[in-house]
């Protein structure tokens, strides 16, 4: 994270005061849950979301389970006020078992709701041009260049803005009224998502669309200003959890490309506030290592202990298998797993064959703490760039402490990987003594994600050990890195490969300075570009995930059908082509 120091003087007192206030602040928006089995904090949802869950439940009973997408119903917008919609809903004629006829329910939905997705409208990005100047100069193969331009053009297809009606009457919508134009992932994901946005921005930067990239950051910062953190997505029902914290990485990448100091200065207070959120009481855990040194690390922890509104029919189906006293805790684990972005994976399960054994809040994730280390390094660098040396020094010190913690708690020298750490006492209130047996020895792609952070990819001895470990791990397949070695049917498991995981591991290897590591990075990137290209030629679409065992095959599994679009896949392909290019004589087919 190297910056040239700004020569301009700056008054940093206000930022220092802001930082001090954040360090002593407590989250007054949290309320304790009344449940004895799950005493953690809960953020209430809106009356509209609660009502739409009732509509969702009735639709499930009426239309049946086949091809049912529960998210559709909590994305509906009201045509009239909530009170009228509720009264009409309660008056729907029901049979003895409570069911409503398909005709009556369809008629009701058509009368009282706008279609899902009508709360956003198409908006062509102003900085889009069909072939940007200096676009992917390392791509020499004309077939690959033509395809890359098609992927580039998909930014137009995914560009939206919040409708004027949503801004005028936000109470009729679950979509949050973001101020700027947005890029959505695609398909059923009709709104902005947090960590998706990082790879969308990387692709936009490759496409020379700097203004659109900045608009995405502005939207995410507006969520911090309103809620105190970046929400999982821009819907009211996501207001109780976040996603992997990559906002500072977005700001840093934009600053690197543009040199826009005013943009960096404007973003810095929000980045500091987000750092405070991820180090708040619900997220932080204290570990005492084998040398009796105390470390503070972070975990995922959603502020919710009910079924997720966007998937409540699914959550309740699983919860029906467990005792009532355990349900609130189970629902919190489900929501906390969704906060991880890895929803779902055997990575978070005590019993890999039993979904109800999710235990995400009892796990310290290696990758989450690497992301927060990156956040601390980014804030330190950005503050230094704008001349705020006190904040820079504070976060540099924080990054040094977290780097030491990551090396102490997660690093396993025998395996050459960073292993998630399972908490033994099940509480975050007391310090826990580190034990080697609590490291999860199973192989996941996340075990290699810390290499993405400069603190680790700049360590040449460590890089060589991690590279060799990756090569022997079983994760490397013909066209990408598998998410795990377990074929569970969950989408964040084998044989699925995901664009973000490919990118972080490849970029860490490529930036290390090791020729062997860069060669491996290029091999992985070539395979990934190839499978994306072949799948695109077969289906005329970019996909959310891919099967890394078969070139040109998209992924599956999980709680919804495979999606197309697709924001982060587009961004990673463009980023790989920008970094590695494609020689004229290299075949793009499988």
From TrEMBL:
The keyword Hydrolase applies. Keywords: Glycosidase, Hydrolase, Signal. Pfam families: Trehalase. Residues 1-31 form the signal peptide. Residues 80-115 form the EF-hand domain. It catalyses: alpha,alpha-trehalose + H2O = alpha-D-glucose + beta-D-glucose. InterPro entries: 6-hairpin_glycosidase_sf, 6hp_glycosidase-like_sf, EF_hand_dom, Glyco_hydro_37, Glyco_hydro_37_CS. Its EC number is 3.2.1.28. Belongs to the glycosyl hydrolase 37 family. This is Trehalase. It comes from Ziziphus jujuba (Chinese jujube).
């Amino acid at each position: 994270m190297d910056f040239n120091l700004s020569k301009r003087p700056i008054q940093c007192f206000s930022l220092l005061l802001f930082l001090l206030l954040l360090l002593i602040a407590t989250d007054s928006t949290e309320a304790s849950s009344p449940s004895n089995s799950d005493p953690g904090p809960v953020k209430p949802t809106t009356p509209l979301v609660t009502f739409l869950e009732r509509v969702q439940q009735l639709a499930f009973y009426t239309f049946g389970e086949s091809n049912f997408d529960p998210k559709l119903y909590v994305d509906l917008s009201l045509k009239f006020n909530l009170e009228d919609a509720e009264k009409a809903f309660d008056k729907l004629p029901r049979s003895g078992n409570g069911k409503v006829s398909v005709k009556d329910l369809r008629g009701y939905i058509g009368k009282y709701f706008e279609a899902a997705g009508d709360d956003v409208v198409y908006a062509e990005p102003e900085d889009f041009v069909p072939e940007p100047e200096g676009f992917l100069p390392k791509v020499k193969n004309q077939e690959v260049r033509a395809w890359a331009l098609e992927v580039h053009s998909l930014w137009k297809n995914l560009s939206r803005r919040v409708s004027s009606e949503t801004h005028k009457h936000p109470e009729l919508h679950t979509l949050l009224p973001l101020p700027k134009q947005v890029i959505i992932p695609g398909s059923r994901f009709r709104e902005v998502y947090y960590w998706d946005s990082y790879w969308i921005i990387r692709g936009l930067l490759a496409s020379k669309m700097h203004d659109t990239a900045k608009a995405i950051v502005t939207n995410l910062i507006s969520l911090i200003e309103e809620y105190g953190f970046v929400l999982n997505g821009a819907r009211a029902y996501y207001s109780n959890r976040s996603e992997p914290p990559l906002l500072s990485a977005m700001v840093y990448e934009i600053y690197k490309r543009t040199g826009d100091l005013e943009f960096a200065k404007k973003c810095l207070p929000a980045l500091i506030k987000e750092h405070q959120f991820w180090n708040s009481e619900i997220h932080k855990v204290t570990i005492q290592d084998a040398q009796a040194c105390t470390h503070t690390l972070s975990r995922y922890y959603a502020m919710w202990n009910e079924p997720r509104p966007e998937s409540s029919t699914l959550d309740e189906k699983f919860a029906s298998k467990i005792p009532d006293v355990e349900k609130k805790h189970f629902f919190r684990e489900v929501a906390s797993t969704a906060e991880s972005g890895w929803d779902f994976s055997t990575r978070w399960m005590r019993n890999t064959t039993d979904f109800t054994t999710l235990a995400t809040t009892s796990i310290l994730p290696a990758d989450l703490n690497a992301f927060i280390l990156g956040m601390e390094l980014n804030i330190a660098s950005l503050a230094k760039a704008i001349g705020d040396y006190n904040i820079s020094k504070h976060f540099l010190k924080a990054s040094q402490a977290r780097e030491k913690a990551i090396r102490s708690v997660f690093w396993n020298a025998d395996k050459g990987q960073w292993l998630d750490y399972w908490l033994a006492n099940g509480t975050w209130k007391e310090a826990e003594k580190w034990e080697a047996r609590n490291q999860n020895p199973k192989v996941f792609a996340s075990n290699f994600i810390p290499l993405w952070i400069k603190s680790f990819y700049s360590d040449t001895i460590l890089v060589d050990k991690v590279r060799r470990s990756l090569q022997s791990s079983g994760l490397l397949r013909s066209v990408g890195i598998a998410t795990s070695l377990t074929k569970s049917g969950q989408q964040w498991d084998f044989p699925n490969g995901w664009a973000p995981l490919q990118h972080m591991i490849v970029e860490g290897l490529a930036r290390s300075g090791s020729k062997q590591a860069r060669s491996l990075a290029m091999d992985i990137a070539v395979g990934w570009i190839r499978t994306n290209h072949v799948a695109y030629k077969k289906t005329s679409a970019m996909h959310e995930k891919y099967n890394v065992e078969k070139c040109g095959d998209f992924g599956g599994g999980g709680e919804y059908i495979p999606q197309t679009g697709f924001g982060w896949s587009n961004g990673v392909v463009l980023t790989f082509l920008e970094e590695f290019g494609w020689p004229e004589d290299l075949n793009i087919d499988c």
